[in-house]
Design brief:
By secondary structure, the protein is α/β, with parallel strands linked by helices. It contains 15 helices and 7 strands.
Length: 307
C-alpha cells in the first residue's frame, strides 16, 4: 500500500466515524450520564500521581459517602483522595495501588479503610471491577474517550469497566437521582425525587454462596503491619449501611465486626466507631447531604485519635 493510499483510507475512516458520531448526536437519545464524565473521572482517579497525604478506601458506599474536601476542611489536611471503587475487593492489587498514591515525603501519611464485608469475600476478589480498570493502559482509556460519540455502536467490543457500576443502581429509577464527579475522586448522589429503595433482595442475590475469606483478612492484616512499619497511619471503620443489610452480612457472609476490629487493632490499625443516622437512598448508599455530614464525622473521629 502506498502512503497516498494509506492516508486516503485513514481519512475515509475518520470521516465515517465523524458521520456516525454526528448521526448519533442528532438522532439518538442522550444518555442520562454523559460517558465523557464518568470515563474521565475514572481515568483521573486511576492515574493520580503520588501526591496525597490521605486516601479514603472502600467500595461504592465509600465512593458515594466520603468527601475528601469535607475531611480536609475538618482536619486541615489539604491533600485527600477518595480512592473508592464499586464492588472493590481488599486484595493485594488494590491495597498496593492505594499505597502508591501517598506522597513518599509526607510526614502525615494515612490510609482510611471503609470496610464492607463483601469486599473481603473470594467472590468479590474474583469479580473485582477495579482490576479491569487498573489493568487498562492510559491509551485504552483515552481511546474510550475519543470514541465516545460512536460508543453505542461498539458497546460489546469496548465494554466499559463502568458498566457494572451503573448496573448496580438499576433498582432506582434514573430520573430520581443524579450524580456528580469530583476531581478528588468523590462521586456523590443527588436525589431529585426523594426515594428510599429496598436493597435486601439485591444483596441476597449478590451474597449467595459468598463468605468472608480468611485469606483476604489475613493478607489485609499483614499489609496493615507493613504500612505501620513504614510510618503510615491506618484507620478503619464499618461502611455505613442499613441494619437489614448488616444482618445479611452477618448471616450470609459470616462477618463478625467485633472480631475483625480486634484483628485490625492488633495489626496496628485504629478502628473507629461512627454511629449516626444517614439518609440511604436505596437502603445502602448515602445521598450527598448525608455524605457531607458523615465525612465531617469521620474526620472528627480521625482527629480525636490522631492526638
Amino acid at each position: 500500500m502506498t502512503w497516498k493510499r494509506f492516508w486516503t483510507t485513514l481519512a475515509t475512516i475518520g470521516a465515517a466515524i465523524g458521520a456516525l458520531a454526528f448521526a448519533r448526536g442528532k438522532w439518538m437519545p442522550q444518555t442520562h450520564w454523559a460517558i465523557e464524565d464518568y470515563e474521565s473521572f475514572w481515568l483521573l482517579k486511576i492515574y493520580q500521581p503520588p501526591l496525597f497525604d490521605m486516601l479514603l478506601l472502600g467500595d461504592s458506599r465509600i465512593l458515594n459517602a466520603a468527601s475528601p474536601s469535607a475531611v480536609a476542611q475538618t482536619l486541615s489536611y489539604p491533600r485527600v483522595l477518595n480512592f473508592g471503587f464499586s464492588q472493590v475487593a481488599f486484595n493485594q492489587a488494590y491495597l498496593d495501588a492505594s499505597r502508591e498514591k501517598l506522597d513518599p515525603v509526607s510526614d502525615r501519611r494515612a490510609l482510611v479503610l471503609g470496610v464492607s464485608p463483601y469486599s473481603l469475600t473470594t467472590k468479590s476478589d474474583e469479580e473485582n471491577p477495579f482490576l479491569q480498570m487498573h489493568s487498562k493502559s492510559r491509551s485504552e482509556f483515552l481511546l474510550l474517550e475519543a470514541l465516545q460519540g460512536i460508543r453505542p455502536y461498539f458497546d460489546q467490543v469496548l465494554d466499559s469497566p463502568l458498566d457494572e457500576y451503573w448496573r448496580h443502581f438499576s433498582r432506582i429509577e434514573p430520573g430520581n437521582l443524579d450524580r456528580e464527579f469530583y476531581r478528588d475522586g468523590w462521586n456523590p448522589v443527588i436525589m431529585v425525587t426523594p426515594t428510599r429503595g429496598d436493597s435486601r433482595e439485591a444483596y441476597q442475590n449478590m451474597f449467595q454462596g459468598s463468605k468472608v475469606s480468611p485469606r483476604l483478612v489475613r493478607d489485609l492484616m499483614e499489609t496493615i503491619r507493613r504500612w505501620r512499619a513504614e510510618g503510615i497511619r491506618v484507620f478503619g471503620y464499618r461502611a455505613p449501611t442499613a441494619e437489614e443489610v448488616k444482618a445479611l452480612e452477618r448471616e450470609m457472609l459470616g462477618f463478625a465486626e467485633d472480631a475483625f476490629a480486634a484483628q485490625f487493632r492488633e495489626a496496628g490499625g485504629t478502628w473507629l466507631s461512627l454511629p449516626g443516622d444517614y439518609e440511604l437512598f436505596d437502603g445502602d448508599h448515602m445521598d450527598k447531604e448525608s455524605a457531607i455530614r458523615f465525612s465531617r464525622r469521620l474526620a472528627g473521629a480521625i482527629r480525636d485519635e490522631w492526638r
